[in-house]
Design goal:
InterPro entries: Peptide/Ni-bd (IPR030678), SBP_5 (IPR039424), SBP_5_dom (IPR000914). Pfam families: SBP_bac_5. Keywords: Signal. With 504 residues, this protein is of the alpha+beta class. The N and C termini lie far apart (51 Å). It has a seven-stranded mixed beta sheet, with helices on one face. A six-stranded mixed beta sheet has the order 15-22-14-21-19-20. It is built from 14 helices and 23 strands.
Length: 504
């Protein structure tokens, strides 16, 4: 059996628009000014390659779409050969910004570089081998079945496409400069997909959320990414800006739980913590309706979704009593003289995590937890340590940006997964994840995903799913019809200002 995925034939392959200004003529000397909290620290295509597709100076082999699917991007087709081999065929005419053609030899080189040096790719495709089979075709031998390969190739963390010799990319923009303050991009005049409508882009790194939105209000920036809820509240009804919303709710705020030490080494305490969190209050009241209340790990529309997230203080208290945590006169709990105390980490690049953590502090106190809220500059860096934290808030979806449920599960919950920050080591869950890798049939995949949710959520509560987030952007007048990407593809060749008539 084979699966053949082919890109529709287009005379000129301009990528799907993220900025809905279709039909407008290119604007002379158009330069987009963006503010974002996240710094591009380097142009290393292995360690920081995910920025390339986000900011339009690089691309991927497969493309996630706003329809919740993936399709070929730099590939012309992807064909499965049996259980553990695939043929990857490149589209013709693609060149790196160095001028070198993206051919089968170049594809083999870049894939082997990722498999050797990129922890995410190495973990997902351990032992994989790449061989050239034609001028534009390679054969990928995975050793074990990898049913989710199309989604892996659409995941920005896996295989950024770059020229190993020159370290250049293929996108409609190329990097002119990068420092600690900003990234400056210019139009790639030899872009394979046609002429970019923007002449350049300046991406400034501004950690403060209010400062980002004020930059748009004052006309110093055109787009502000990751606006905090406090800023969005103040912008309601402001004619100087538009709040633009993505098509899909792909973001998810979760708490990584540190299961390596007490008290969260006990599944009863973890389950009690989850029951004591009122997600509806967090989404609708604390965050003023800018977030959504999750009913499960995955969106309800998906066939494998299970509605298993509940709030119930009495049930939480019963579990804590069962685990030996007794109430003191002041309402807090202790066991063998040790208080039921935890630390929740918020992180400054995502300012919404702080009010959520403070609200959780009050909610958990009703069950007897003593909660300290800490704010760290980098969430992952803080959680790499086994000490100093118990709950680490982070925007990490259960679906990859290639709409894959398997890779995030393997990365965050499989023993020794690259993002298993809480120290989960569960042989039963590992077995389910391993079986998912070879589940090509949808019914079997769905069954295994439901079993994974039973173990990870209902039985063990390894992660705390908090609220769901729809990506939003604050836009100035010239970009008031800009559509934020649900899948982090912020710019492409069609991105452009809309002019005075746009949105009218």
């Amino acid at each position: 059996m084979s699966i053949d995925v082919k890109r529709p034939l287009l005379a000129v392959a301009l990528l799907a628009s993220l900025a809905a200004c279709g039909g407008q003529e290119p604007v002379a000397q158009a330069r987009l000014r963006v503010v974002t909290p996240y710094s591009v620290k380097s142009l290393d295509p292995i360690k920081q390659g995910f920025w390339a597709s986000e900011w339009g100076y690089g691309e991927l082999l497969m493309r996630p779409t706003e329809r919740g699917t993936v399709e070929p991007w730099l590939l012309a087709s992807l064909t499965r050969q049996g259980e553990s081999a695939w043929t990857l065929t490149l589209r013709q005419g693609v060149r790196f910004q160095s001028g070198r053609a993206l051919d089968a030899v170049a594809l083999k080189e870049l894939m082997e570089a990722h498999l050797a040096q990129n922890p995410a790719a190495r973990s997902a495709l351990e032992g994989a081998k790449v061989a050239v089979t034609g001028p534009l075709a390679v054969r990928l031998e995975t050793g074990e079945p990898v049913a989710n390969l199309p989604s892996l190739l659409a995941d920005e963390s896996m295989f950024s496409v770059f020229d190993v010799a020159s370290r250049t990319f293929t996108g409609p923009f190329e990097v002119k400069s990068l420092d600690s303050q900003k990234l400056v991009l210019a139009k790639n005049l030899d872009y394979w997909g046609g002429k970019a409508r923007l002449d350049g882009v300046e991406v400034r790194f501004v950690p403060d959320g209010q400062a980002r939105t004020l930059a748009v209000r004052s006309g110093e920036a055109d787009l502000a990414f990751y606006p905090p809820t406090d800023a969005l509240r103040t912008l309601k009804g402001d004619a100087r800006v538009s709040i633009r919303e993505a098509a899909l709710a792909t973001g998810q705020l979760r708490g990584f739980l540190n299961v390596r030490k007490a008290p969260l080494d006990d599944s009863r305490v973890r389950r009690a913590l989850s029951l004591a969190v009122d997600r509806k209050e967090l989404a609708e009241t604390v965050m003023d309706g800018f977030y959504r209340t999750p009913s499960g790990v995955y969106p309800e529309a998906l066939p494998y979704s299970v509605k298993n997230l509940r709030t119930g203080l009495p049930a939480a208290e019963r579990l804590l009593e069962e685990a030996g945590w007794r109430r003191a006169a002041d309402g807090t709990r202790a066991k063998d003289g040790r208080p039921l105390a935890i630390t929740i980490n918020a992180y400054s690049p995502q300012p919404d995590t702080k009010p959520v953590a403070v609200a959780m502090q009050a909610q958990l106190a009703k069950a007897g937890f003593q909660v300290k809220v800490a704010e760290v500059p980098e969430n992952y860096a803080a959680m790499r340590s086994a000490d100093g934290w118990d709950v680490g808030l982070s925007f990490d979806g259960s679906l990859s940006y290639g709409f894959d449920p398997v890779a995030p599960l393997a990365q965050m919950m499989r023993t020794k997964g690259p993002r298993n920050l809480g120290g989960i080591a569960d042989p039963g869950l590992d077995q389910v994840i391993d079986e998912l890798a070879g589940a090509f049939e949808p019914a079997e995949r769905d069954r295994l995903l439901r079993e994974a949710q039973r173990i990870a959520v209902e039985e063990q509560a390894y992660h705390l799913i908090v609220v769901d987030r729809v990506p939003r952007v604050v836009a100035g007048p010239r970009y008031r019809d800009y559509r934020p990407s649900s899948v982090l593809l912020h710019l492409d060749a069609s991105t452009a200002p809309c002019g005075d008539s746009c949105g009218s």
